[in-house]
Amino acid sequence: MSSMAGGADIENGHRLGGQADRAGVAERLAARSAPLVIAGTRRTAPAAPTAAPAASGDGELVPFSAIRRRTAEHLRRSVDTAVHALVVTEVDYSAVDAVRRQHHLTYLPFVARAVVRAVHDFPHVNASVTADGLVVHRQVGLGVAVDLDFEGLVVPVVHAAADLRLPALSAGMDELAQRARARELAMTDLEGGTITVTNVGSYGTVMAAPIINHPQVAIVSTDGVRVRPVAAPVGDDWALAFRPVGNLSLSFDHRAFDGAYATAFITRVRELLEQSLWEEEL
C-alpha cells in the first residue's frame, strides 16, 4: 500500500473520500497484512517503542485513529518483509491527452489500462510471494490505493481487470469511489488484489516511491503531468515541441524478480501509453 496519499487522480478523479471504513473491515485488512514467515528463519520481536514525550505547552498530542494505526502497521510490515526497489520512467501523454479531453476522462484509467495490458507480457509482476516461491496469478485484481481524508489508506480492487476495456475499467474505478464515499465498500471490494496503482499527481509531485501492498510484488505510481518543452523528431531532424509529460514509478519486490525485468515492464507500460490507438478502446 502506498506510503503516499494515493488514489487522488491527476485531475481529482478516483480519490476516495469519507472517513475510516467500518471497524470490521479495518480489522480484516490488518489481519491480511500479517508478516510473512519464511521457513528456516527466525524473526525477533520488535523492540518496545520508546515512549513519546507528553504534550506540553509547545505541542499537542494527536492520537492515532484506528485506520491510521492499522495503515501504519501494514506499511511497516511490508517494509520489513519485501525487498523494495524502484525504477522510474518519463511518459509523453500526448496520445492519451487528445482522447481523454474529448471523452472527459482523467489520466488514471489510461495508466491502469496500460498496466493491465503490460501484465500479459510480464506476468511475474502480477504475483504474490510465499515461503515456497512466487505465486503468479491468472487473473488481474487491480488495486487502486486511495486515502481516507488523510486518515489512512485503503485499496479497493477492480476484479478481473484484464477483461475490461478502458470505458468499463474507468467506470469500475468510479463506482468503487462512489461507494467508498458513501461508506458502502464490502469486504469483497478489498480482497483479491494482485497489483496496485497509486497516484499523487494532483499534488504536483515529480517522483514517488510507494510502498508495496504486501504480499503483492509491484505497485505503479503516477506523478503530476505538466506541459514541458521536449525534443521531438521531425523527419530526420529534431524540433522543440510542447508535450504533456509526467513520471511513472514502479516499486517492486526484488525477491520476485530483478531490475531488468522491472525496467522492461515499466517500459512496456510507457510504450502502451505513448503508442496505443486509444480511440479504438472507446
Number of domains: 1
CATH topology: Chloramphenicol Acetyltransferase
Mean pLDDT: 83
Q: What kind of oligomer do you see?
A: single chain
User: Count the strands?
Assistant: 11
- Given as residue ranges, the uncertain stretches (5+ residues, pLDDT < 50) are 1-23, 25-44
Rg of Cα set? 20 Å
**In what range is the share of β-strand residues?**
15-25%
Going by CATH, what is the homologous superfamily? Chloramphenicol acetyltransferase-like domain
Helix content: 25-40%
CATH class: Alpha Beta
Order of helices and strands: HHEHHEEEEEEHEEEEH
The profile of the biggest β sheet is:
7 strands, mixed
Mass-distribution shape:
globular
**Intertermini distance:** 30 Å
Number of helices: 6
Q: If classified by CATH, what would the architecture be?
A: 2-Layer Sandwich
What structural category characterises the helix and strand content? alpha+beta
Helices and strands in order:
Blueprint: H1 23-32, H2 66-81, E1 84-92, H3 94-102, H4 108-121, E2 127-130, E3 133-136, E4 142-144, E5 146-147, E6 153-154, E7 157-158, H5 166-181, E8 195-199, E9 218-222, E10 226-234, E11 237-253, H6 259-275
Parallel strand pairs: 4-8, 8-9
Antiparallel strand pairs: 1-11, 2-3, 4-7, 5-6, 9-11, 10-11
Helix pairs in contact: 1-2, 4-5, 4-6
Give keywords.
6 helices; 7-stranded mixed β-sheet; globular; Chloramphenicol Acetyltransferase; 282 residues; 22% strand; alpha+beta
Structure write-up:
With 282 residues, the chain is an alpha+beta fold. It has one domain (23-32, 65-281): Chloramphenicol Acetyltransferase, CATH 3.30.559. It is 29% helix and 22% strand. It is built from six helices and eleven strands. Strands 1, 4, 7, 8, 9, 10 and 11 form a seven-stranded mixed sheet that branches. Strands 2-3 form a two-stranded antiparallel sheet. A two-stranded antiparallel sheet has the order 5-6. Strand 10 (226-234) and strand 11 (237-253) form a beta hairpin. Helix 1 (23-32) packs parallel to helix 2 and helix 4 (108-121) packs across helix 6. The longest helix is centred in the C-terminal third of the chain and has 17 residues, at 259-275. The radius of gyration is 20 Å and the shape is globular. The two termini are 30 Å apart. Residues 1-23 and 25-44 have low confidence and may be disordered.
